[in-house]
Amino acid sequence: xxxxxxxxxxxxxxxxxxxxxxxxxxxxxxxxxxxxxxxxxxxxxxxxxxxxxxxxxxxxxxxxxxxxxxxxxxxxxxxxxxxxxxxxxxxxxxxxxxxxxxxxxxxxxxxxxxxxxxxxxxxxxxxxxxxxxxxxxxxxxxxxxxxxxxxxxxxxxxxxxxxxxxxxxxxxxxxxxxxxxxxxxxxxxxxxxxxxxxxxxxxxxxxxxxxxxxxxxxxxxxxxxxxxxxxxxxxxxxxxxxxxxxxxxxxxxxxxxxxxxxxxxxxxxxxxxxxxxxxxxxxxxxxxxxxxxxxxxxxxxxxxxxxxxxxxxxxxxxxxxxxxxxxxxxxxxxxxxxxxxxxxxxxxxxxxxxxxxxxxxxxxxx
Length: 366
Ligand code: NAD
Known about the structure:
Elements: E1 3-12, H1 16-32, E2 36-42, H2 47-53, H3 59-66, E3 70-75, H4 90-100, E4 105-111, H5 124-127, E5 131-137, E6 145-153, E7 156-162, H6 167-183, E8 187-192, H7 198-210, E9 218-223, H8 224-233, E10 240-243, H9 245-257, E11 266-270, E12 276-280, H10 297-309, H11 314-329, E13 332-333, E14 347-348, H12 351-364
Parallel strand pairs: 1-2, 1-3, 3-12, 5-10, 8-9, 8-10, 13-14
Antiparallel strand pairs: 4-5, 4-11, 6-7, 11-12
Helix pairs in contact: 1-10, 1-11, 1-12, 6-7, 8-9, 10-11, 11-12
The structure holds nicotinamide-adenine-dinucleotide.
Nicotinamide-adenine-dinucleotide binds near residues 75, 77, 78, 285 and 298.
């Protein structure tokens, strides 16, 4: 019997509606080669939801996600919604999805496709073949801890946030990271600031306590300041890194830029039941929206992550990643990954042409 995979598509705003249909078409083709059918339901989130449904995260959208195997999001936001009150901004839609669907594990790979080694700000030999996965805790830590706010104390204002993790929160994100490391190169680096912050002392203790259960994984620990430095000094020393919400926010952006372009970076946010929200790291790029100039590859690579982490179809994931590598090797580039220009055999193309090239690449490999 044909397996039917249900995906909720959330194109969102700006370039989202340009890149999501391409990723869906690529996903459909890759899945068909595994004999699986794709059923797509489109839903509103972000600015378009504010305009059409009165709020950034309609109940229907949440229901559509809950009924699906996974969701693929483009991006939310844009200048036309920036003056609205905080709880009526497009970004609230994204935060609402993360909290309502309990997406506690954020996976951000930093993978450098060899044809783009020149695009990195680091020397090509430092980054060529780079393949890091950062696992960031997404629903706890200082971004959510209470008390928080600006208070009066001794006749002046003080700003307060609370860095707080319960043992079960540390354990569940650490297990995700151990499992992923076991399927990759078997190395896990846990990042903390245990020399200063008690909360991360507990983090280190809980992560260390799990190591015996994963004998195939070599666990190491690193302070966050050193981790930032090591990422730009010798990034290939890392395989999987696991860390809390705030450190992960910062380190994943650093690692991401090692690969050169925002237009190439996918991400996944996973719940305990295997549901995942997959999205490019970039935003809605209002400056280029509607111009057929957006790079769809980050969204396409997010669809590949969906195959691997929510659908259990690693062959389809590899097929999509292979198609991305193939079009890059053929010299096809959207403007953002063109590099300095003047490279032989490199051709600038638009969003749609990139989509067509990807489909041709997948079909030719069938
Ligand atoms: P951005 O990521 O949208 O754009 C930054 C720069 O990168 C722009 O010059 C843009 O043209 C370029 N860029 C981004 N994605 C690209 C792609 N796929 N192809 C080619 N070029 C690309 O960040 P920003 O300008 O700071 O934010 C714009 C809007 O997006 C804001 O409303 C912001 O709140 C929102 N945003 C949303 C998300 C999200 O939905 N996850 C993330 C970041 C920003």
